[in-house]
UniProtKB/TrEMBL annotation:
The active site is at K68. Homodimer. It comes from Neoaquamicrobium sediminum. Residues 9-91 form the Shikimate dehydrogenase substrate binding N-terminal domain. Shikimate binds at S17, R18, S19, T64, N89, D104, Y220, Q248. This is Shikimate dehydrogenase (NADP(+)). It comes from the Bacteria. The gene is aroE.
Amino acid sequence: MAETMKAFVIGHPIAHSRSPLIHGYWLESHGISGTYERIDIAPDDLERFIRNLPKSGFVGGNVTIPHKEETCRLVDRLDEAARAIGAVNTLWLDGGAICGGNTDAAGFAADLDVHASSWRSAKSALVLGAGGASRAILHALTTAGIADIRLVNRTFARAEELSERFGTGIQAHHWQDTNDLASTSDLVVNTTSVGLNGQGEMPLDVAQLPANATVVDIVYTPLQTPLLAAAAKRGLKTVDGLGMLLHQAVPGFERWFGVRPQVTDRLRGIIVADI
Ligand code: ATR
């Protein structure tokens, strides 16, 4: 009988993670003898958990908040995306070496390729937010060759810091300048939770965007954010954040279990039912 392959997602807290639903669905639909479990790891226990991986019996796993950045410092090898983004979301073993990668940017790109395939030829992208999630989006946009990226953030210094980190092509702008930038931005990506649960006010008025603009919100709780609702009402193309979540899971599953899984409407429906 085939040995059961074990994978995990670590975070703190971890109960909210939908990754077990995604990987559990793929394991079952491919008839793979494997498990994917949530493990709550407190920050003080992260180093021990990671360094122990070669002896743990796990084939690998995912890393989520608050461990993505710290994990960069604890692995033996980083892939190019993890190095550029400064965060690890996927771990695997190669011989005795602990390897860390980041699939968030690739997941974002793969989902847009499905739902808004013209995104790669955007002339100017407007990115809202300069936190951890924003770094993956900036990596995806620069890798796709989008030459003009406008980054706005409530705390301007964080936007400046990221524009320096990622180099040419990304200009930091002030939060209150969002609407001035909108009329010449044909791709908008919101990486913040602003406007949800009474937190702050969305600085972007979708009426300012060109008619061919695509609006992406990488937040997926709720699936239809106020920003996406307003953009759809104006007839703009919209993309929610669930597809990125599903697509970022594909490379990890393939590495651990040896099968490249598909992102299907059925899988999407299972996660939507859980949101
Ligand atoms: P994540 O990993 O989800 O990106 P984060 O690193 O905490 O989380 O970043 C959150 C982002 O949302 C930041 O860009 C933050 O702006 P600041 O850098 O000014 O903190 C932004 N954000 C969160 N709440 C906000 C609000 N009420 N108004 C404006 N921006 C907000």
